[in-house]
Design goal:
The chain has 89 residues and is an all-alpha fold. Helices cover 91% and strands 0% of the residues. The longest helix has 47 residues, at 42-88. The protein starts with a helix and ends with a helix.
């Protein structure tokens, strides 16, 4: 049961980290559009946009994977509790 709890906490921590990173990336994307006014290099803007888009996509994927890991760990933990209760009864 301790292992399932640790796995769940780890998955939740990964979800929170990914969500925070998505928020920071979105903030960076918004700041890049407002502070880019003096620069005339569109290729630089394109590179910044491409990097932020990839960061956002990878963090979104990490969030979804961590969410599925947490659900699987919760299911495993619930089955383990039920098994222990059946064993005691």
């Amino acid at each position: 049961m301790l292992v399932s709890s640790i796995a769940r906490f780890n998955a939740i921590n990964n979800m929170n980290t990914a969500a925070m990173n998505m928020m920071m990336t979105s903030n960076n994307m918004m700041n890049a559009t407002h502070t880019f006014g003096g620069e005339h290099s569109l290729s630089m803007l394109h590179e910044i946009d491409k990097k932020n888009s990839l960061d956002l996509a990878s963090n979104s994927l990490l969030y979804k994977i961590s969410s599925l890991q947490e659900k699987a760990a919760k299911k495993h933990q619930d089955l383990e509790v039920k098994k222990n209760l059946d064993f005691m009864a």
